[in-house]
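Chapter review: from sequence to fold.
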Amino acid sequence: MHLVSFDIFRTLGFPNTTVLKPDQFLRHKELLREADWVLFPEYWQLNALVHGLKCRVFPSVASYSIGHDKVEMTRAFQAVAPEHTPWTMVEANGPLERDMIWDTMSHPFVAKLPKASMGEGVWLIETREDWRRYCECTDVLYAQEYLPLDRDARVVVVGDRVLTAYWRTQADQGFYNNVARGGRIDTSPVPEVMTDLALRLARELGVDHAGFDIALVEGYPYVLEFNRLFGNQGLGQGSELQEAILGYLRKQTAPEDPDGPTEPTPLWPVAV
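The token string follows.
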């Protein structure tokens, strides 16, 4: 396979890989057209690469388009697994909508900025003043039921399998489980019901590189969100991630025979 990467750090050590700077990609159209895979482009490059140059990209287009916005992500979850999606209200940010959400949601509740990651842009709404401050920061109101948790699980899906899963326990200041906001990693076993949900969502949505955040409430799993680009704090050796990505790309690149494996041609006639 010949690979082109736009992220030197995530593809460090990948064999037969050319690294390009994202802002110079149009200078290398032939190289991109001839590549078997284009790895980790920026979101703004997608249309030109996929539709213009007909490149095959990793992560998948679905990983980008769904993972780019929490509103779109939640709608996708509601489409394929509504029973595992916390109750969520999404409205335009107007005075009537602000009051409607405040009056409808059970308190406390969670509010999120549609485009944020690493635990940023997530608010615990306990008072009307909390709600007012959140509303001043966003054009779209995203309110979600509060789940009583002291931890959640990060389930890492690469290709069509779960690579690893680990717990993220709550930060000292409470509420946040994200490691970037002070949460801690716990390598105790993650129940299969949580990893199964992450893998089901990934397969049904066409997401092939993501860290899914899954919560468990009285034994029942809920999906909170996923991050297309996830941290490596709980991944252990980096070589395992590299091998998982390369193995998946090789499998996707190999031509498929609709008639199954070809039998060797016999050296002499065979009686039937």
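Two observations follow directly from the output. The chain is about 30% helix and 25% strand. Confidence is low (pLDDT under 50) at residues 262-272.
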